[in-house]
Amino acid sequence: MDNRIHLAFQTHTISDEYIGYAYDVDRSFKQAKSHAGEVELLCTYAPDKEYGSEGSIPCIALVDDDSVFSAVDEFIESGKVDNAAELTPLTGKFIFKAKMEYYGDIMYFYAFVHNSEYRMQAGLCLIYPENYSGTEDEKNLIKVLDAAAESFRRL
Predict the structure, then answer these.
(1) CB–CB of 140/148 below 8 Å?
(2) Share of residues in the chain with pLDDT > 90 (%)
(3) How far apart are CA 48 and CA 38, in angstroms?
C-alpha cells in the first residue's frame, strides 16, 4: 500500500456556523465528526473517501486542548514556547506558528486568541506521524496547513 501523501490541488471549505469559523483545505482532506470537546473543524487525510475518520492522522483541526492552551499562555507571558521545535512569531489573525511533539506525533499549528463570551486560546493544527519529519510528505502537509491558515476566517 502507498502511504505517500497525494494532494488533489483543489480546495473545499470546512466550516462550523456554531463556533463561527471556516477554512479552505485541499480536497484530499475530508471533514470528520469529532466527539472530543477540544477539537472542532476536524478533517482527516482521506483522498479516496467521501468522509474523514475521527482518530485518523494526518488531520487538521481547530484544537484548544491543554497542549495548545499552555503553549499560547507561555508565548503570551514569555514570547517563547519551551517545548516547540520551531517557533515563528506572527502578526495579524495568528500570534505565532510552531511545531512540537504531540502525544508521539508532530503538531504544526497556528495559534490565536479569540475573545468573545469567553477567552479561547486555540490553534489551527496539523497533526501527523513523526516518521514524516524531514520528508516530502511533511513539506506537502505543511503547505496544506499554511494555505488553510491563510484562508482561516470568522463566518
Answers:
(1) no
(2) 76
(3) 27
Burial degree of 142 (CB within 10 A; 0-12, 13-18, 19+): middle
Distance CA 78, CA 38 (A): 24
Question: Position of cell 504531540?
Answer: 102
3-class SS shares of the chain: helix, strand, coil, % to 5: 20, 40, 40
Q: Is the pTM of this model over 0.70?
A: yes
pLDDT in tens, 51-91: 998 889 999 999 888 899 999 999 999 999 999 999 999 99
- Is the CB of residue 67 less than 8 Å from the CB of residue 102? yes
Mean residue pLDDT of the chain comes to 91
- Which residues, in sequence order, are CB contacts of 134 under 8 Å at separation 6+? none
15, burial (CB in 10 Å: exposed 0-12, middle 13-18, buried 19+): middle
For the cut 90, the answer to whether the pLDDT of residue 129 exceeds it is: yes
The Cα–Cα gap between 150 and 4 comes to 25
